[in-house]
Amino acid sequence: MTLYEITDEYRQLLEIAEDPDMDPDVLRDTMEAIDADLEDKADGYAKVIRTLEADEAGLDAEIKRLQARKSTVAGNKARIKGVLEASMRATGKTKFKTRLFSFGIQKNPASLVLAEGKVPTEYCILQEPVPDKKRIADELKAGAHFDWAELRQTESLRIR
What we know:
Layout: H1 8-18, H2 24-33, H3 38-91, E1 95-97, E2 102-104, H4 133-141
Antiparallel strand pairs: 1-2
Helix pairs in contact: 1-2, 1-3
């Protein structure tokens, strides 16, 4: 469903833009094949862009909903598993089989626990320093000059 009345040419462009398996060259070729002057093309493109923005917002909302559902399912799974394990330990039945499943409480692989700040450097992986981009940008904005950094102003299309 689109927000605007879209002609067949732009509807085809929208369908191609929404298809995740479509080759980007097909999108470009479809755009080039639309025969209209710049202003009419811009209006058509803007309608397609607005429709894609609405689709994007809907997908973002659906992702958030599914992530929340996944978190709930994972939490419930852990609670059920925890209650089952506690029941097995309480009854002393730490290993048994049913017609459908085998159950057992077993040892996990050993995990490493380190004393914070006491590991010798020979056991550490040294990493390259990472530039503090926010600090550098803030200082440049405040008037600092560096021969190794600059702020670049770029441009992009805005549709209002």
